[in-house]
Amino acid sequence: MIYGTFAQLYDELFESDMYQQWREFVESRLPKSARTILDVAGGAGRLGVLLAQDGYQVVDFDFSEEMLSLAFKHAQEAQVPMTLVQGDMRDLNGLEQYDAITCFADSLCYLDDFNDVQATLKQMAAHLKDDGWLLFDVITPYQTDEIYPGYMYNYEDSDEQRAFLWRSYADDDVEHGVIHELTFFNRLPDDHYQRLHETHFERAYELKEWREALLKAGFNQIEVKADFGSQAIDEKTTRWFFICRKQVD
């Protein structure tokens, strides 16, 4: 399989402990009867593989063909079955209904505006079985307004083969908006460095907006936590974890 260099570097450098934490969050929140999971924005399939190893039937749904190519590779290496589907999370038509839908790494915050968020939540509700569960996380306005502006992270591996620069700025044109500048330097065989650059835009929304959008989409049982579902939220929570149920009376 052929995949883009940027996707591969991102996959290699992403903090692996977070996948284990998402795995534990999913397993602690889903009932034992839930066996089918649609992982929206599942990317390179790292979480999907872990869940498949635990016996779940997983569909990795992602916009990026390069990421799905990596997911195919990871599933083969782990020797687990996992279905891969390329598409836009705002339109899940053609997919089945599932016991649970997951969407992590604040993926919903990358949508253009809240209309897109609302449309995506409605699609998710439509593709859940009765009494199905939606588990997702998003960054908070505290994260975008207080933590990210001026944030910088630099990484270089021990043998100087790769370096990663991450800088974040407030997006003055968007309320609770943030701009991420991501730059990879990849050492080539001739000792020159290949520079790869991407700009990502994220946006946070107030908790009240999330609750209203989820109710409108059809979720009538909504719980919000911090720290992968283990702590209560407060005014300095940087990431909300939502546990939502499409409950049928």
UniProtKB/TrEMBL annotation:
Coiled coil: none annotated. GO terms for biological process: methylation. It comes from the Bacteria. Residues 37-132 form the Methyltransferase domain. Keywords: Methyltransferase, Transferase. One of its GO terms (molecular function) is methyltransferase activity. PANTHER family: TRANS-ACONITATE 2-METHYLTRANSFERASE-RELATED. This is SAM-dependent methyltransferase. It comes from Limosilactobacillus mucosae LM1.
